[in-house]
Amino acid sequence: MHDNRDESVQFWIEEFLTARATRKPSPHTLEAYRRDLSSVALLAGETLTPPLPIDALPIDALSPRLMRAAFAGFAAPRAAASVHRAWSTWNSFFTFLVAEGVVPGNPMPAVGRPRAPLPQPKPLRGEDTPEELLAAVAGQAGRQRDPWPERDLAVLALALCAGLRLSELLALRVASVTGRQGERRVEVAGKGGRPRTVPIEDAVDRVLAEYVDSRRRRFGARSVRPDSPLLVDRRGEPLRRGGLQYLVESCYRRAGITERVPRGARLHALRHTFATRLAEDGAGASEIMRLLGHASLTASQTYIEVTAGQQRAAVRSNRTNRALAGLFAQDLRSSGGPHDGGEVDLR
What are the Core-binding (CB) domain coordinates in residue numbering (predicted)? Predict the structure, then answer.
């Protein structure tokens, strides 16, 4: 075992983040790891007498008792989902420390963890909103200085008709679209290193082909080599996270549907719309899981449950049901009760 008396928590946090970086997580994910580790470590150091900063806090001081106290302080002002995420980060951190021989065991099983509620789907609001969005982007350039509707439509089609995440869109290559005519598919580098294949229909295939042709006209044949990034900006450079988010928000504005985009959803609203419509059209949880690249059926099941609730709400709002309810309400007022005690003939 390492002699870790002089090695601080800060030192091992940096070692852990370096090890995680080899898995190629997004910068956003790495920053979340750092924030969760540093926030709890700071509280752990402040719990000691005298208090210690994390660059002076010995790694072997992180006992189960100290971690419980630190997480109690961390949890007080935060939502259950945030505490659950931080717990998982620290559990991974201690698993790393045990594997490195830095500490003899993982204290996190002794620290309480709230059950994180599954995030609810946030599809675009309005039955015809996806169609309005596609039509608006395909049919007008708006006030853009350098309009490129073929590229914008390709992004929307991949998100709305294949359910790709932001990171998956950015990772696509020209060669990611494969297969014969009528059997086209997209090879996706999924979350957590889980690859998947998503079939695409002829209309999406045509949109992608027209985008690639327009790119060839703009930047030349070398720009569409098989290993080239599929999605690029107006200078021919690979699209980045911020650029892709801005592109999608621009499409919302041009279509005049910004008020129908759930708060905080951005591009994910398109993926959620894809999944929700799958459920509405009868797809099962296992099919949704495979198409969206979920790690378990639980996340996929939420789309089916939401759809069932929407169906119930639609039936409840039906005018005939409301009229029937009104008749019963009128009958109750006149009779003074549900019925007079006699049999109700339902034949």
Answer: 7-98
Is there a contact between 266 and 248 (Cβ–Cβ < 8 Å)?
A: yes
Cα–Cα nearest to 226, from 187, 168, 195, 181 = 187
What are the tens digits of pLDDT across the range 139-169? 865 556 788 999 999 999 999 988 898 999 9
Alpha carbons within 13 A on the beta-carbon side of 145: 2
Please give the helix or strand (H or E) that residue 111 lies within, else none: none
Per-residue model confidence as pLDDT tens digits over 76-128: 999 888 999 999 999 999 999 999 999 999 999 999 988 766 667 788 999 89
Sign, CA torsion 198/263/133/130: positive
- Kindly state the tokens that stand for 164: 């790709």
Question: CB neighbours of 311 closer than 8 A, spacing ≥ 6?
Answer: none
Pairing of strands 185-189, 177-178: antiparallel
Residue ranges in 50-162 assigned as alpha helix (H):
64-75, 80-99, 129-139, 149-162
List the domains of the chain with CATH numbers.
9-110 (1.10.150.130), 129-271 (1.10.443.10)
Asked if the peptide bond before residue 104 counts as cis, ω within 30 degrees of 0, the response is no
Interaxial angle between packed helices 80-99 and 64-75, expressed in degrees from 0 to 180 and rounded to the nearest 10:
150
The span from the CA of 251 to the CA of 258, in Å, is 9
> pTM value?
0.61
